[in-house]
Amino acid sequence: MELVRYIHLNPIRARLVADIKALDKYPFCGHAVIMGKKKKEWQDDAYVLKLFDKKRSTARRRYKIFVQKGIQEGKRPELTGGGLIRSSGGWSVIKSLRRANIHFNSDERVLGDSDFVERVLKAADEFLERKYQLKFQGYDIDKIADRVAEIYSIKPEEIFQPGKQPVKVKARSLLCYWAVRELGFTMADLAPKLNISQPAVSMSARRGERIASENGYSLMDE
Questions:
Q1: If we measure between CA atoms, which residue out of 194, 208, 142 comes closest to residue 163?
Q2: What is the CB neighbour count within 10 angstroms for residue 93?
Q3: How far is CA 121 from CA 105, 113, 114, 183, in A?
Q4: Banded pLDDT at 174 (limits 50, 70, 90)
Q5: Domains (ranges, CATH) in the chain?
Q6: What single-letter DSSP state applies at residue 139?
Q7: How far is CA 122 from the centre of its chain?
Q8: Is residue 205 within 8 Å of residue 181, measured between CB atoms?
């Protein structure tokens, strides 16, 4: 209930709408659907309403009162940021642990420590997903670069330097492919790191897929 309220008050906090009355009709937020002002077939408003009452009219009234009370609370730090970041005490703690080469299994959807995240993902049949395994083992963009540099016998920093030399193009392509496919990086994530456009990242990732397939390369040196 707290999370639903917090998310649906985002337009007011961002000053996209002036007040709760305007929020009732705001089309880019689930609140209007719950209030019966808009319709979206994919949104399960009944799930939220049943938290307040079995009767829809009563549930809507109680829900709106609950949401209104949340306006004065402002931002809620405990409801923002990734699950691991919140539960571990913030970015400074996470960075310190990473510098000590300590890594945790984490997921932005789950608030809790490493062991709890593992149990939740396992229960959701996601525990064996490769990207979580890789993140658990400390794989990030730098570790991908190290693996690519090993394959092409170059320095990791060369991959991020501009240039159209064949070896650089191949290395950059393989890095893009593994970063996108294996770790879930977006084109927007990679473009500034490589100083190329988002379409170029997309093309590089496709090229990298062919390179990996044709040469039998894998991110983990198995």
A1: 194
A2: 13
A3: 10, 12, 11, 16
A4: very high
A5: 2-77 (no CATH), 82-136 (no CATH), 141-215 (1.10.1750.10)
A6: -
A7: 19
A8: yes
Please give the single-letter amino acid code of residue 217: Y
Instruction: Please provide the average confidence, as pLDDT, over all residues in the chain.
Output: 82
Residue 102, pLDDT score: 44
The helix (run of H) or strand (run of E) holding residue 135 is helix 130-136
81: left (phi over 0), alpha (psi -120 to 50) or beta: left
Angle at which helices 141-152 and 166-181 cross, to 10°: 140
Tokens 């937020």 belong to residue:
29
Q: From CA 133, how far away is CA 98, in angstroms rounded?
A: 17
Q: What is the token pair recorded at 202? A: 């997309």
Cβ atoms of 1 and 8 closer than 8 Å: no
Q: 3-state class of 199 per DSSP?
A: helix
What is the per-residue pLDDT across 124-138, written as a single tens digit (0 to 9) for each? 554 346 666 777 778
Rounded CA gap, 158 and 155, in Å? 5
pLDDT band at 38 (very low <50, low <70, confident <90, very high): very high
CA geometry: angle 53, 56, 60, nearest 5 deg: 80
Full DSSP string of 12-69? HHTTSSSSHHHHTT-TTSTHHHHTTSS--TT--HHHHHTTT-SSHHHHHHHHHHHHHH
**Alpha-carbon separation of residue 195 from 93, 172, 188 (angstroms):** 30, 11, 11
Q: Whole-model pTM above 0.70?
A: no
Q: Report the C-alpha gap between 114 and 94 in whole angstroms.
A: 12
